[in-house]
Amino acid sequence: MSVMVTSSTALTGRSRRTRLFTVEEFYRLAETGFFGPNHQRLELLEGEILEPMPIGPAHAAAVTRIHFTFTQRLGESAIVRSQNPIRLSGVSEPLPDITVLKPHADFYRAAHPRPDDVLLILEVADSSLEFDLGAKARAYAEAGIVEYWVVDLAGGRLRIFRLPDKGEFTEILILQRGQSVTARAIRGFEVGVEELLG
C-alpha cells in the first residue's frame, strides 16, 4: 500500500534530521490523540510513522478476494488477518495487507503477532510497488519473515521472497498468470497466480 512519511523532523544547523520513534512512543502518541481519529491506519516502519494513501477499489477487491480464498482453503490450520499489525521489532509495526499466522487459542488477543508467529505475509501493490519491493521487503527480511509475497496488480505478476539472511531475501521468484505457488511454511497450500490477481 502506498505511504508517505509523517514523522516529525528537526533542523540542526543546515542539516535536516528525521525523528525516529519506538513502538512504545508510537502508541503513547496515539493514546494522546496526536494522530487524530484515523490513527488505526498508521504503521511504523524502522522508526518512521507512515500514513497509507487512500485505498482504491482494485486494491480493496484484491485484498478481500485473497483473504476470502485463504480463509476458505486454510480453515482452522492457520489464522488469516487483513491489514492488522504485526510487531517486527521495537521500531517496526507494519499493517500487511494479508498475514497468515500460526493458530493461536486467543487469536492473538494478548499481543500482536511477532515474526515467529508468521507463516506468510502478502502485500497487494498498485501504486506502492517500489515501496513494497524496497523498504517493506527489507524490514520483513531483517525481522526474519520466512516468506513474503507481493501481488503486482499493474504488472500482472506475483513476486515471491524467501530465505531471509542478514536483512535481505536470498531467493526471489517472479511468477506469471497461469503459474501456481506453494507456500513453504503452510503444508499443502497451493494457489494460482490468477487467483491472486483476479
CATH fold-level topology of the largest domain = tt1808, chain A
- Poorly predicted spans: 1-13
Beta-strand share of residues = 25-35%
Classification by helices and strands: alpha+beta
- Return the CATH architecture of the largest domain: Alpha-Beta Complex
**How many helices in DSSP terms?**
4
User: Order of strands in the sheet with the most strands?
Assistant: 6-7-8-9-10-11
The level of helicity is: 10-25%
Question: What value does the Rg take, in angstroms?
Answer: 17 Å
On the 0 to 100 scale, the average pLDDT is 89
Estimate nothing, just give the exact number of structural domains: 2
**Number of DSSP E strands:** 13
Main CATH class of the largest domain: Alpha Beta
Biggest sheet, open or closed, and with what strands and sense? 6 strands, mixed
User: What best-fitting shape do the alpha-carbon axes yield?
Assistant: globular
SSE pattern, N- to C-terminal: EEEHEEHEEEHEEEEEH
Q: Alpha-carbon distance between the termini?
A: 18 Å
CATH superfamily of the largest domain: tt1808, chain A
Could you characterize what this model shows?
- With 198 residues, the chain is α+β, with helices and mostly antiparallel strands.
- The chain folds into two domains: 3-51, no CATH class; 54-197, tt1808, chain A (Alpha-Beta Complex), CATH 3.90.1570.10.
- It has helices spanning 23-31, 57-74, 129-143, 193-197; strands spanning 3-5, 9-12, 15-18, 43-45, 48-52, 79-82, 98-101, 118-125, 147-152, 157-165, 168-176, 180-182, 190-192.
- The strands form four sheets. It has a six-stranded mixed beta sheet with strand order 6-7-8-9-10-11.
- Residues 1-13 have low confidence and may be disordered.
